[in-house]
Specification:
Blueprint: H1 6-19, H2 21-46, H3 58-63, H4 69-102, H5 109-118, H6 120-139, H7 143-151, H8 155-162, H9 167-177, H10 181-206, H11 210-213, H12 219-256, H13 258-266, H14 289-292
Helix pairs in contact: 1-12, 2-4, 2-5, 2-12, 4-5, 4-8, 4-12, 6-7, 8-9, 10-12
Length: 339
């Protein structure tokens, strides 16, 4: 691992999404498809006439009619709650799959969904705390809300990777983003601009032509609208999760040397779930520059001739007497110049 700039972060995010496309698409289909179907049923049950484009146009809202105000409000509330819950589940599952991919671990849609379901309570609690904090920030002249939103950008990856939640995750995110606020803001701004472009294109492709082929108040138009919502979630949710996860790991690499902690974990050491602990002692070198040799032109110690290099792989011990040893293939004979 190494620090990534803006272009490398976006490029790595796209590559991760492409390499795990089947897993991420399965996660989003399992979560988003039932919710979109439920939304269609609720809309058909609570409205007399529903005009496509309600989410994007005020004129479409005025064309939507319903006979029971209470049923319509309850239906819209239920749609909002289901969409919010599906977004949390899909995002957390994508976080898990993307983090496993970035760390070189095996992953699957089932494992990611199981993880998201197990962390749903912690996710809801963190969302409530985050929402209240951002609401207070936006009420305080708006700018503090933007500042807090960026400072708490990696709170969800902190909760999922490090196992902390609520106020502890927000505090940890704040410390990671500290001194890197503008860089984090730039990465997230470009990410949401790209998401806006994808959402606009999907809207134009699926919703705008409804007036040409079907009536915009028909059931077919309703299906096209929710198909557009499903396609947008399949593309944008994994991408935003990938960028946020890579920003989190990038902050840990820059501030905590997370690549060393990960190396220790892969070599059988403790899991790299939190900040790496400072070494208590420095192991002695294999050789001493002051005793066995001098230093090179850059001031680095130089091993004496014949001394083992600290970077060389260890030499395997000779086989014990009477034990089996693999046969050594003879070196090929090179033809002589006369031949």
């Amino acid at each position: 691992m190494r620090p990534l700039n803006l272009g490398e972060t976006l490029d790595a995010s796209i590559k991760i999404v492409r390499s795990r496309w089947k897993t991420l698409a399965t996660v989003m289909l399992v979560v988003a498809l039932p919710i979109q179907l439920a939304n269609i049923i609720i809309i058909k049950s609570t409205t007399d006439v529903y005009q496509v484009g309600t989410s994007f146009s005020t004129s479409a809202k005025s064309a939507t009619t319903y006979s029971d105000d209470g049923a319509y409000v309850a239906g819209q509330t239920l749609i909002l709650a289901l969409s919010f819950l599906g977004y949390l589940l899909g995002t957390v599952a994508c976080y898990r799959a993307i983090a496993d991919t970035y760390l070189g671990r095996e992953t699957s849609a089932r494992a990611s969904l199981r993880f998201a379901g197990g962390r749903l309570g912690a996710t809801l609690w963190l969302t409530i705390v985050l929402f209240v904090g951002l609401l207070c920030g936006f009420l305080a002249l708006f700018l503090p809300g933007i500042w807090l939103y960026i400072a708490w950008t990696v709170a969800y990856p902190v909760m999922l990777v490090e196992g902390t939640g609520g106020f502890a995750a927000l505090k940890r995110s704040f410390k990671l983003v500290e001194t890197r606020w503008w860089a984090t803001a730039g990465r997230m701004a470009v990410t949401y601009i790209l998401v806006g472009v994808v959402t606009t294109v999907a809207t134009l492709l699926f919703i705008a032509p409804t007036g040409w082929f079907v009536d915009d108040t028909s059931f077919g138009a309703l299906l096209l609208e929710h198909t557009a919502n499903l396609v947008v979630s399949l593309v944008t949710t994994p991408f935003v999760a990938a960028v946020t996860t890579l920003v989190y790991f990038d902050l840990r690499v820059r501030k905590e040397g997370f690549d060393l902690a990960l190396l220790a974990e892969r070599m059988g050491g403790p899991a790299a779930s939190g900040p790496p602990a400072a070494p208590t002692s420095v192991p002695p070198p294999l050789w001493s520059a002051d005793r066995d040799g001098g230093r090179d032109a850059f001031g680095r110690p130089v091993a004496p001739r014949g001394a083992p290099s600290p970077y060389a792989p260890p030499v395997p011990p000779p086989p014990a007497p009477g034990s089996w040893a693999p046969p050594v293939a003879p070196e090929p004979q090179r033809p002589s110049q006369d031949e």
